[in-house]
Amino acid sequence: MAGSTTLRKLGLAAAMLALAAGSALAQEPTRILNASYDVSRELFETVNADFAKAYKAANGADVTVDQSHGGSSRQARAILEGLEADVVTFNQVTDVDALVKGGFVAADWQTRFPHQASPYYSLPAFLVRAGNPKGIRNWDDLVRDDVKVVFPNPKTSGNARYTYLAATAFAREAFGGDEAKVEAFIAKLFDNVPVFDTGGRAATTTFVERGIGDVLITFEAETRGIAREFGETKYETVVPPVSLLAEFPVAVVDRVAEKRGSEALSKAYLDYLYTPDGQRLIAENGNRVRDEAVAKEFAGQFPQTRLLTVEDVFGDWRKVQEEQFASGGVLDRIYGDR
Q1: Which residues, 6 or more positions from 233, have their beta carbon under 8 angstroms from its beta carbon?
Q2: Residue 5: how many CA atoms within 13 Å on its side-chain side?
Q3: Span 220-256, pLDDT tens digits
Q4: Which secondary-structure segment (H or E) carries 126?
Q5: Which whole-number Å values give the CA distances from 154 to 197, 198, 256, 266, in the listed order?
Q6: What is the CATH number of the domain that holds 280?
Q7: Mean pLDDT of 179-190
Q8: pLDDT number for residue 140
Q9: Domain containing 59: what range?
Q10: Most buried among 155, 167, 267, 335, using CB within 10 Å?
Q11: Distance (Å, whole) CA 150 – CA 234
């Protein structure tokens, strides 16, 4: 009798656990928020729709991915201040590291997805007006007195920080590491910028809609998107002979995902970026991808260039943050009160 009672209790406990598990599954959110950089709107509109279709086909559930866009560093600050993003798709490692420091993302985030959690990459490139009237081909053309350059504020935009780092890398090679000449080169580049917007999309508006400047510096993918949207006959993309590898790190925002119970959906979403279908969509939106077969398929669309890396030129992102971007660092000194 006692054994029978014990079995009944165990059965009841198992049923309650199953019910609890089923209830938790039922309560798992079907909506997540992706906080992303400023010029990725069109890319993720496409990706999100296709991910939702693929997820439903595999799991039979409808899901939605909402978007938040802004300068990458601003997005990181917004999360630290309360924006409940389940995942981030940023354009700068230091912005994810800021979330690590704030306790929102795990310290091992770069080991959780392939290629150090960067499913695709790009580079700073130039968008010029039709016919390239100023003959802009390389970074040294941007410091001429007759050239006006448009890119956002490197203090608020990850996009612009890549521009700053790429120009610095070029100048270090050109001047044999003479830092005084390098800083003078960057100061002249900054002098040629008529207005510093806070993010990449605002800089695009300044160049395209307001008609300011001779050249817009932004990610290669953005230059292609602008030409498609506003007319292939109005603009030309110029990929300089040397530029800087711009990686696009992704991460689950652990603190938010654990609170909302969205860990599985968040991971599935970021995993999708690495699938052949996801990589193909990313390549169609002008980015260079990691999947070798897909990269080969789109190779003809991407001009050859020599890509330097942050590690090659500056050591690593930690050193970049400390020496270049920290308060009182090189960027502060050159940028001044602009």
Answers
A1: 130
A2: 2
A3: 999 988 988 888 899 999 999 999 999 999 999 999 9
A4: strand 124-129
A5: 9, 8, 28, 30
A6: 3.40.190.10
A7: 98
A8: 98
A9: 2-121+247-301
A10: 167
A11: 17
